[in-house]
Structures are given as structure tokens and as C-alpha cells.
Amino acid sequence: MRGTMFLCVVALIVAAGSASAADAGRGEKLFVECASCHSIEKAVDGVGPSLFGLFQRKAGEVADFRYSPALKRSGITWTAQTLDQYIADPQKSVPGNRMPYSGMPDASARADLIAYLQKASR
Amino acid sequence: MVTKLKDVDVVVIGLGWTGGILSKELAQAGLKVVALERGAARDTSKDYSLPSIRDELRYVTRHDLMMNTARDTLTIRNNPSQEALPMRRLGSFLPGDVVGGSGVHWSGHTWRWTDMEFKIRSMYEERYGKNFIPADMTIQDWGITYAELEPYYERFERQAAVSGKAGNLRGRIQPGGNRFEAPRANEYALPALTPILSSEVFGEAAKNLGYHPFPRPSANASQAYTNPDGAKFGACQYCGYCQRFGCEANAKGSPHVAVIPIAMKNPNFELRTHSWATKIIKDSDGKRVTGVAYTNILNGEEFEQPAGMVMRTAYAINNVHLMLLSGIGQPYDPVAQTGVIGRNYCYQTGAGARLFFDGRHFNPFMNAGGSNISIDDFNTNWDFDRGPHDFIGGITIGAGFNTDLPIGYRPVPAGTPQWGKAWKAATKKYYQAAMNVGSSGSVMANRYNYFDLDPTYRNAFGQPLMRMTFDYQENEHKQGRYAAEMVNTIARSLKPTILNEASARTDPWSVVPYQSTHNTGGTVMGTNPRNSAVNKYLQSWDCHNLFVVGANVFAHNSSYNPTGPVGALAYWTVDAIKNRYLKTHGPLVQA
What is the reported pTM? Predict the structure, then answer.
């Protein structure tokens, strides 16, 4: 019985993506790795595009930002899952993209970062 | 027709590291600051990101970020008996020409020069006697001490995101750092960069021979970082495109990242690009300057910008040139040994070996500007006895790639044909298998190494070019031979399959191949107006409201890269202006 309940909880966490279990506070600290290029304010592009309204947006769609053809062609819609895959190893996920970032290998760090972005990018 | 503009508090001429620091700080202090920059405004998001970057042809071969020799250049000769000829292409050194100056395309190596430089004459005379210093070697104490500069080094290191490992914290030797450095109050802003294989191989060899390897301090952020003024840096990606390129990851400490954007947000600050200063204007009594004459290089329009204070903050060589063109201070005469403007020009020297190891893979495309390992056993180590080797100065030895680019970097064993089938086979075989051990050597001031105005050649504005007279002297030949011997000893200890040995630069100096952008001197700092152009606060002895900030104030050149003390001196000068000059408006040191 106990075992089953535990399994249910795990399943719930997986279903909800990383948002509920992850630590958005830690994610905010991890965002410093992104902040030299990305803002989360609306229409404020840096070296990279603004991350405002990121989730459910298609990759390469911020107006006036010059994306790499690779990212524009990627067909990605940004969700917790696609973002997780991309941040883990950007060149593996979208070969030829222009983001000069080698990736965040730690899955729990990515979950925390995504949790922060889900809150902050709205 | 010259348009006379409205008076401002400060004109800053040249917007790189020193101009950026002074602009930001003086605008924050409430002064109305106008910066004149001959180059264009560029920034990371538009200009230093793909696909505009990682372009060897554009940045390395065609010098996209560097001065345009069709507009202004120098004439060059080795000694006063020769006729100097114009340098029509950049070669040996690469001054920047853009907002951010050479600080955009530098590698980031940020050293703290010590009292072994600032008190050079006293220290050598005390240890070796007056006769140890040759008669023509015009080295002198700088009039400043390491202790005075220490907090300002730290301020610059924090501003520029310098990564490193302290070797001496308040007198206590720290494992892993440079044990020969002068005491630091605090650790570096960021931990040291990750060493690359060639650095580690060198470090091991140096250690086995009893030397003391340490990671080179460099303004390449080893982690994401926010500087004290809120400028954000990304982490270095070891992309291998550092020197001669702007940084696409915002990880290199550059003025256009670290200080200029903060000045730009201040309403007291105004930037005018494409603005070429032709003269600093002296008052009729010659004791003050009243402003700057400049030309808009896009349309030829001429302006006069009156100002309460003038900051000359361009590249070292150009700072000296404008002083000569403006007639401020007495030009140096090497025969009579009178005058100060143009005196004590110094360069650097070096010797390097290339090692080839069959079967090894060094991945030379992967490096930071400063992912090197160095030893200072022959440099800031005063226990290293120069007496038996009979030279003055120091040698840093190190290894690790820095911007060894996919097209231009073609290591092949000595004797390989320079083109054709054999060259192709060798470059394929050895690209991965080679590493370097290199050294950088100081150059001592000499009576006959100096700047003056060229009697023949003129620039695009009709003004005389500056003439550089320079050659290595016997002191540098001896030091170079010793450096080559030490480099080869370390290299041989690694038992490479093939070794291209290091040799000293003893032929007459040539301006053609690239060597180093570390030009120093020409308006040196010092204790009195007879041996220096500026006082210890970089204030002109002649005109008290003129400050000349850059490596042009160095009284000689060390083996270290110059930007550490350049940045520290800029902050030191800012504090002297803010805390003292603005109250007195007079000389900060009495002549």
C-alpha cells in the first residue's frame, strides 16, 4: 500500500514536469549563467533574445531578433521538456545554433532553472 | 571652419579601458563628460556574435578592430643613424580602433606589477651596485609603490572579472598560486580558469625541475559573474577565439562590457564616435589646457571642444603622439639627453619552443585567452640572482594555447618545406601533436629608444607621423639567450619526439611579424619634471588640468602584460582627481 502511494507521488511529479518539485529560488541563482545574454523582461534583447513569454512559444520567433537558421528550422516549441533537453547540451539538441553556451549537465539544476523561468518569464 | 562647442567639465580622448574607467567614474562624480573615440561603436549583441565573429580573415588578416594605417601610422627605424620609413601595414603590434579600444581584442592577462618594477633602479643599485646598470640604460624609479597601488589593482580585477588563484594573501604563501607575487589583500574575483592539456603538461615539467607553476590570472570569467557596478559576464566557453576578437559569450573583461555601458546610462556622459583628436589646446600662459580640437572622420567637419579638464586615454603610442603634436612638454633629445616627451619607449622580447609528440592530441582549438600555466621563478622572484647572467629585468615562462586558430595555426617541425605536398602532410600530421613553451621578456629603457615627430611623413590630417626609434640592446640579448636556454631545458625534459628549439631575438628588431601589443613609455611618470612627463597621479607637469593615462607612463617595460597596472593606475588617477584635484585645481605634486 505504502509502496503504491509512493509510486503515485513520483508519477505526479513526472506528470507535472519539474515545476512542483524543483527549487525556483535556486533556479534564480543559476540564471546568472544566462543573464549576461538573456533578459526576462519583455522586448529587452541582449546578446540572446528576451526570455519573456518563453513557454509555449515556437523557437526563433521573437520579433527583430536575428536567430541562427538552425534554431529557426528546429521546429521546437518551448516547454519544460524541450527546454530541459536544449539546455543540457545546446549543440547536441540543435546542431549549428549560435548560443555560445556549452550546457548545464546537472538535471536537477536544469529543473530548478526551468522552474524559475516558468515563474519569471510570464 | 572650426565649430566651437559648448564648454564641458571633462573631455576624454580615447574610449578604451582607461577612458571608460575615467568616463564612468567622473560622470558619476557629477562632472559633465564628453568622450571622443576615433573608432565606431560596437557591441556584443550586434557585432561580436555569430555570424560576425570567429572570422580569421576579417579579424586577424584584415585587422577589423585595429587602427587603420592608411589614416595614421608610425615611421620606424632601429637607430638614429637610419632614415625611418612608414609602417604601411600593421605587424608587430595591434592598437585597437573601436569603442573599447584594444580592450576588446586583448586576451585578458592581468598581472600585478610589483616594486621590482616601480623601484627598479634603487633595488638593482642596492643589490648589485651602481655600475651594474649600463650608462645608456635610462631606467628610473616610477615614484609609486605596490602598496599604494594594491587596492586599485583589486578594484580593476573585480571590474574586469579576473580569474586566478592568489599565491600570497597578506604575506602568507598560498598553495596553487604564484608564490612570487606581491602580497594581495584578497583572492581574485573568480577562481582560476580550467587548465588545458598543454598547460598541465608544462606545469608538471616545471614542477619536476623545481620551479613553481601557477594558473595565469586573466580577465576571462571562469564562471558567470556580476561586477561591482552590475555589469554581467557569462562564463568563458574556451572557444579559442580570444585575442583579436570581441567575446561572444561576454566572458572577457572588456571596457564595452565592464565600464562603458554604465557610463552610457549616465546623463552626464556623452560619447562621440568617429572623432579624431588632432590637438590638445594650450592656454596662452601654457600652464593649463583649454580643450581639444577634433575632426569628424566621416565628413571632415572640425570642432573645438572647450573643457575644464582633458584626459588623454588612447593607446600608449597615440597618447605620446598627441602630446608631441600639441607641443605640451619638451620633446626628448637623445643626444643632449634633454626633454621628456618621447623618452623611454620600451617594447618586449621573447623566445619560444615548439614541441611535437607523436600520438598525442592537444586539441589546440580549445582554450581561453588565459588558460595558461606560468612560472615566475625568473621574474618576480628577487632571489633569482641576475648577477651571473649579467642582465636586468625578468622572464615569465609559460605554456598553453591562446587563440591558435584553425587556419593560421600550422605547427610543423623546423626544416619542413613551407608549401606543397610535404607541408600539407606535415601540417596534417602535427596539428594535434604540437604544443608550445614560450617566454616573455622585459625591455629596459635605453637612451636611444624613443619617439619624436617624423620630419618627412604626414598622416591624413596633414600632421607629422610619430617616429619610433627602437632596437633590442645587449641587456635584452643576454636576457633572451638565458630565456631560450631555460625554455629549452624545460622543453627537453618533456622528451618530445621533435623539438623546434627556442632562440633569442638578437637580430635587429623588425616591425613586420606580430610580436606583442605591449608598447610602453614615451610620457613616463616620475618624481620630477626633469625625468618625467607626468607625476605619480599621471598629471602633466606642464598643464595641471591634463592627465595622460595609459602604458605610456611606464618608465620601462616588464615581462608581464601591461593592462593590470594600466587599469589600476586609471582608478588611482580617478581617486586623486575626485578627492584632491577637484578641490584645488592645481598640481597634485609640487615640481
Answer: 0.94
